[in-house]
Amino acid sequence: MMRYLIPLFAFMVLAAFLLVGLTLNPRQVPSPLIDKPAPKFQLNHLHQPEQIMSSDENLGKVWMLNVWASWCVACRDEHPLLVQLARTGIVPIYGLNYKDERNTALQWLKRYGDPYAISIVDPDGKVGIDYGVYGVPETYVIDKKGIIRHKQIGPVTVDSLEKTIIPLIKELQQQA
Amino acid sequence: MVRQFNGVMKAAALAFVLFLLIPLTGWSKEAVPVAENPEVEKRMLLLTENLRCLVCQNETIADSRADFSNDIRREIREQIKANKTDQEIIQFLVDRYGDFVLYDPPIKPTTFLLWFGPVILFVFGLGSLIVYLRRRRVQIEDVSLSQAQLEEAEALLNEDKKGKNV
C-alpha cells in the first residue's frame, strides 16, 4: 500500500507548489523600500513649471504618490478609480508624471480627469529610479513621517483599494 | 534574329545577376562605439551583465533594450563617472529594487532555500536510490529453491516442450 501512496503523496506536494505558483505574479517584485523613508525629491509642477514641490511639504499627512504617464495604457484603466478616490477626499493623491511630454500629459489629464492635488514631473525618470519604479503605473502610500507603507505595482483596482489601500490609509491617519 | 534576341537576354540576365551582387560589396561602415568613454562603457557592461532587467525578467540589463534598462545603464554610467565603486553602485540598485536585480543573490535566510534546496533534493534522491538498491539486492538474494521445487520446475518446463511438439 505504502508503495503506491508515496508517489501519490509526492505528486500532491508538487501539484500544491505548482498551484500556488499559478497565483503568484512574477512581475510583483517586493520593494525593499517598504517601511523605509520615501526618497526625497524636488520637482517642478506639471501645470506651473516654474513652481517646485519638495517631498518634505507632505510631512505630517498621509498621502499617495501615483506614478503615471500618458504613454502608459494601464494608467488609463486605473485612472477613473483615482478620480473617484480623489472625490471622496479620503487622501490627497500626488501625481508623478514619469518620462512624459508636458503637452501630451496636460491633454491626457484634461481628457481623463485630474485627480491629483499636485502633479509633478520626472522627465528623465531619475526620481523614478529612486523610488524603484519599473512598471508604470505604480502607487505608493506614504505616512505622516514620510515612510513608505505600501507599494502597488501595476494599476490599482477596486479590490486593492477596498481591501488594502483605504483601510491602511485610515489606520495611518489615526497614528500621531 | 532569334540569336540576337538571345544575346540581349543573356546580357540582361548577366546585368541582373551583377546587380544582385552589389550589396555584397559592403557599403557598411565599422560600428561606431556608442559611448564617448570606452573605459566607462566597459565597466558598465561588466556590472550590468550580472543585473536583472525587471521589465523583461530573463534578460540582463546589459542585453535588454527595455527603457528601464536604458535608464539604469545611464544611471550606472553617471555613477562610474562620479567615481563610485562597483559595490556602491550595486548597493544603490539593491536599495531600490531589492536582491531580485542580482543574478547572483547573496546567501541569507530568505535565499537559503534557493541556494541549498537543490543540494537537499540531491542528497534526498541519492539516499532514496541507495535504500532502494539495497532492498532490491536483499530481495534477489532471498530467493532460493529446494531440490523438490527445482524438479517440479523442470517437470513443468518439459511438459511445456511436449505440448508444443504435438
Give the tags:
heterodimer; A: 176 residues; alpha/beta; Glutaredoxin; 5-stranded mixed sheet; two-stranded antiparallel ribbon; 5 helices; 7 strands; 40% helix; elongated; B: 166 residues; mainly alpha; Helicase, Ruva Protein, domain 3; 65% helix; flat
What is the fold's blueprint, element by element?
The complex is a heterodimer of chains A (176) and B (166).
Chain A: H1 2-23, E1 42-44, E2 52-54, E3 63-68, H2 73-88, E4 93-98, H3 102-112, E5 118-122, H4 126-130, E6 138-142, E7 148-153, H5 158-174
Parallel strand pairs in A: 3-4, 4-5
Antiparallel strand pairs in A: 1-2, 3-6, 6-7
Chain B: H1 2-21, H2 38-48, H3 67-81, H4 86-97, H5 112-142, H6 147-165
How is this structure best summarized?
Chain A has 176 residues and is an alpha/beta fold. Helices cover 40% and strands 19% of the residues of chain A. Helices cover 65% and strands 0% of the residues of chain B.
Q: Give the CATH topology of the domain at 38-106 in chain B.
A: Helicase, Ruva Protein, domain 3
> Could you say what the CATH architecture of chain A is?
3-Layer(aba) Sandwich
Instruction: Assign a percent range to the helix content of chain B.
Output: 55-70%
Main CATH class of the domain at 38-106 in chain B:
Mainly Alpha
Number of strands of chain B: 0
Tell me the domain tally of chain A: 1
* Helix-strand sequence of chain B: HHHHHH
How many strands, which pairing sense, and closed or not: the largest β-sheet of chain A? 5 strands, mixed
Q: What is the helix tally of chain B?
A: 6
Shape of chain A: elongated
Mean pLDDT of chain A: 92
Give the oligomeric state.
heterodimer
Low-confidence stretches of chain B: none
Terminal residue distance of chain A? 63 Å
Ends of chain B: how far apart? 90 Å
How much of the residues of chain B is beta strand, in percent? under 5%
> Structural class from helices and strands of chain B?
mainly alpha
The CATH superfamily of the domain at 38-106 in chain B turns out to be Cytochrome C biogenesis protein
